[in-house]
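Feature request disguised as a bug: please show the residue count (532) next to Mitochondrial tRNA methylthiotransferase CDK5RAP1 in the output. Example input:
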Amino acid sequence: RHFLRAAAAGQPGPSPELPPEPGSAPGAPKVYLETYGCQMNVSDTEIVWAILQKNGYARTKELEEADVVLLVTCSVREKAEQAIWNRLQHLKALKARRPRARAPLRVGILGCMAERLKEEILHREKLVDVVAGPDAYRDLPRLLAVAESGQQAANVLLSLDETYADILPVQTSAGGTTAFVSIMRGCDNMCSYCIVPFTRGRERSRPIASILQEVRMLSDQGVKEVTLLGQNVNSFRDLSEVQFQSVAAPGLSRGFRTVYKAKAGGLRFSHLLDQVSRIDPEMRIRFTSPHPKDFPDEASTVKLSETSPDRLSQVLQLIQERHNICKQLHLPAQSGSTRILEAMRRGYTREAYLELVHHVRDSIPGVSLSSDFIAGFCGETEEDHLQTVSLLREVRYNIGFLFAYSMRQKTRAHHRLQDDVPADVKKRRLEQLIATFREEAARANAALVGQAQLVLVEGPSKRSASELCGRNDGNIKVIFPDTELEDAAKCGAPGRAQPGDYVMVKVTSASSQTLRGVPLCRTTLSRAAASH
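Example output, currently without the count:
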C-alpha cells in the first residue's frame, strides 16, 4: 500500500509530544506511541491518542518516561513485521531494567500486525501485554486496565461498521501544517497479494458530515494541507443519508472490472471532494490511495459545470477546476504485465491502465503522477518484468513506491499461487525498477527547471538550517534558501517564510526526488491560482 517516505524502511516514527488535555490529573499514566507503515497508521495513531487522552492518559515523547508503550504496526510485508519483533527485543530490555519502585511497563501492539498475529504476539516470550486490532481502539482503556492487573488482554474483532466517525483525532504532525483525515476503512478489492482486507476488514465509509466537521476544525487550527485517506478512496460511499440510498451504482470504463457486484446507493467520493474543497480556499486537498478502476464514468449527485467534457469523471473534473485540489494523482499500477495483473486480480489490463493515464493527462495538464510497483510477484517471468520496466518509461512517474514481493498468509496468492521468483532475482528486478523510475523521474522533474512553483513550507531542510523545505502542488519536495521575502500583495513588511506559508519558488535544478530553487515571494493559494 501507499507508504510514508519516512517509514518505508520500517523505521519507527514516534510523534512529537502534545500538551496534556487541560485539567488532566497530575501523575496521569504516560503513553508513548510509535507509528510504523502507511499513512492510515498515522491517522490511527491520532485516533488512539484522542481516545486515551479522554481517558486520563498523558503523552510523552521520552521512551524512558513511559508507563505504556504502544506500537501501531504494519503487516503488508515481512520486513515491516520484522521491524516490530526487533523493537520488542529493545522494549524487553527496557522492561527488565525498569526500577521496581515504578509500576511495570506495559507494551501494546496495535493495528494490522495485531490482527494478523494475535496468538504469536501474545505467546512469544510474553513480551506484549495488550493486543488491539484496527477496529478495537475504543476498547483500549479497558484492555489497559486488564493489563494493569497483570493479565494479557486482546481484542482483534473486525467490524462491519466501525469508522471512528465520532472521534475527532488529535493531530500529531510536526508543525501542524499538514494533516491526514481518514474517510473510510477496510477494502473489498481482494487483490491476490494483499493482506489489507484480512487485517482491516470490509470497506465502510465515514458519514460526510463527520469528515467535513474534522476538516473545518483543522482549518480553524491553521492546517494548510489535508490528505483524505482510505485504502480505496474513490469507491467511497456514504450511506448515512436515506435520500441518497437509491443512487445508481457507478459504471466502469472499458478494460476495467471488479471482483464484487456494483454497489448502488450513497454519496460518492466526488461529492465529498467537492464539499471538502469548498471549506477553505487556502487549504490544499490531496487524497490517497485511489484504485484505477474507480475513476471513469462515476455516477454522482454533484453538478459541477455546464461545460464539463463528455465522459470526464467527476473526480478528474474537480481536480481540473478547483485551485485548492492538488494536480496530483496516485495511480497504483503494481505491474506492467497484463498476465501478472490478472494473477494479482487488479481488475484491468496494461492497455486499460495506459488509456486511463492518457485520459488523466489530457484532462489535467501538468498533473503529477505517482504509483506503486511490486517486483517478483508469483510466476513473474523476465518478459513480465521488462513490461513493467517499459511502463515506467512510458508513463514517467514523478513519485514511486517500489518493493519486492513478500508472500502474506491468508491472501489468495498464499492459497493459490507459488512464490517462485528467487530472492536474488526479486532483488535484481527491484533494483532495475528503481533505477528506471529514478531516471525517468529525473527527466520529468527536469522539465520544471525555470518554472515558478507554489510551495507550501513545512519547515527547515534536514540537511541545512539555512534552507527551507516544502512541497509543490505535485507533492515533490522543494528546497530553497531561507531569506527575507516580499509579500506578493505588497501589504506587509518583508519577512522570512514560516511553516504553513505559501512561497513562489523559481526552480533552478532538479533530481529524481527533489527540486531546488530561489524564492520569489510569499503569497497565498488563491492569489497564486488567480495569477496563472
